[in-house]
Amino acid sequence: MLQEALRELEEPGDPSGDGRGVDTAVDADLVDTAVLLASELCENAVLHAGTEFEVALTVTEADLTVAVTDRGPGPLELHLAQPRQRYGRAASHGRGLALVQRLATTWGTRHEADGRHVIWFSLAREERPAATPAPPAPPDAERVWTTAEQARWLLHVPPGLVDRLEPTELVAELVRRLRELLDAESVSVEVDEGDGTGAREITRDGSPDRGLSTGGEIISGLGTNPGRRVEVRLPTTAPLRGVLRVTHRPGRPDADPDRTRDLTELIAYRVAMAVESQWLRAVDQRRRSWMTYLAETSELLGQSLDVDLAVAVVPQVVVPRLGRWCAVHLVEPSGGMRLAALTHADEDALPELRAVLDPDGYPGLPAELRNRLAEVVRDGSSAVRFAVPTDGIALPLWARGRALGTLLVGRPQNRPHSPEDVVLAGDVARRAALAIHNAQSTAAHVAVSQALQQALLPRALPMVPGLDFAAEYLPASTGSDVGGDFYDVLTVDPSSWLVSIGDVCGKGARAAARTGLVRDVLRVLVRDDRSLPRAIERLNEVMIEADDPLQFCTLAAAMVRRRHRGAGSGPTHSHGASRGGLDVDLVLAGHVQPVLVRADGTAELIGTFGTAVGLVPTVRLTCTRHRVDPGDTLLVYTDGVTERRRGSEQFGAERLLTVAARAAGRPAVQVVGAVREAVERFSTEPLDDDVALLAVRAAP
């Protein structure tokens, strides 16, 4: 656009047309010079200011003036996140002002109050009078900036650009400015974040310092002339430390050491602000990451109440976040230690590590580590560092004032544990200890509940010639909830047996206590020669006295007597002539009807419903007598069989009769097994109620 405007001025003419206008014809060489210098200034505005710019052209009889206005602070190369071109025209930046100085008649800069910066130059359209020649400029002379201008150019970065720059980019720009201003060989910044990794160089402008090696420690200048170097500590907050280092060119000593140190200290404050800002941002991000990590750890640890699973999760959440390997040792009841869980980032190293950390393995725990673990378990102290078999920390697993074991964490790769790592590992250890303690408490509770559940069932069924007993119990829960279903077989005399099955309302300790009450009271009453109806009535009175109507019980009780050949048949439900088998007196107190499976392949429900015990003071009961011929089977069960659900459909009594009839003539254990298998096959859902089955078969 500028070139087109100047080309139009190459033709002589009078723009006003009245002979009084200014002759605007411009020489072609002058046009080329103006375009060259203007393009350099525009390029500087694009590359260094990074803002929009304006170009103004003024032509008079004596001069041609071009002014380029931008809103930037001056040279700024790294204002974009993406690196710019480092070759071609963009790589030869910084020569625009030198060209302007050599080719322009006059030039200068102007800084407006609104933040705009104007660089202008003028080209004379005719030769200047030789009467007052300017003194010749020295070769490659450059404009000398005042101290205030140097400080302003060194430090000033517009807020708009600061928001677009990463702290490391801003530090790199400040370092580059300082090097250019001091004409130093190199300027670098090293930072030690206090995390155990040592110092690292975050930026450098210029060639590497000869005789120095970075990484690990703040460079002290070994092998070089200390007079060539200026080092200024960055004024940062502990544990962050840093140094700004300026190295002068060989053979060119610093002409003004005080100025160099003043400018270096001035820029060190600005660099420290950027470095600390980035460090605080990283710390905040790490802490947010740790919070998320701890929340996920708590969720994983709390997902299982199984001790082995809870312990196995601990090393998985520690490695590799906090270390290369992790081991959990638990305290045994005998006081010894056992290796409960172990993992390593390198699976090939697991066998060797296990041999060293397993107290029962070979070579076993080193004496030093064994003593450290004993100290941690005994005192419950904070983290203890160890060096054998590798560097790491040992933390106590304490919960509810009791020592559960220890957590060993090997050091991360290429660095020791930082204080932040130790604090975080201690937090993980506390959460892991609580999860393990909860799992151990639950396991102990489950063991007690299961022992109580087994105590409510007979240890073994009687072995009687001519009779075949079989039973199965399927609890709906294998945890700490004790079911209320029970069955029992009591030998009253050599030819009589009390067969009972019941279902106490509810689950848990109260239901278990009521179950034991029903079973034991019924046993005592029957042994006291009371009839079944009278015994159940007395049982109801005992339960009513407990004044807990929510703990009622349904009960099916049968007095089974051996019938000798030639004995007469009973008064009720007799079938044909006497030929051996069993006589059964049956009382149902709110319980489901038993199934009588005949040897001929038929099955029927028997008994008369009565009132459940523990609900009302007076119960209505009916005793019915049934004949179980040789080969027949009496099957009693709880409502978990018939009420087994598959969606809205129930297993039901009809399906039970069909399954039982198919098992006719088989031993009692096969009849029970057939029914159990059919119930389990009926639905894939877990049991929602306990299932108890008890079969009595008269031998054929």
From TrEMBL:
Biased composition (Basic and acidic residues): 1-10
Region of interest (Disordered), residue spans: 1-24, 189-229
Alphabetized UniProt keyword annotations: Hydrolase
Coiled coil stretches, renumbered: none
InterPro entries: Bact_Sigma-Reg, GAF, GAF-like_dom_sf, HATPase_C_sf, HATPase_dom, PPM-type-like_dom_sf, PPM-type_phosphatase-like_dom
CDD domains with a match to the protein in the record: HATPase_RsbW-like
Any one GO MF annotation of this record: phosphatase activity
Residue ranges of every copy of the PPM-type phosphatase domain listed in the record: 464-698
Domain GAF: 306-446
Name of the protein in its database record: Serine phosphatase RsbU (Regulator of sigma subunit)
Source organism: Pseudonocardia hierapolitana
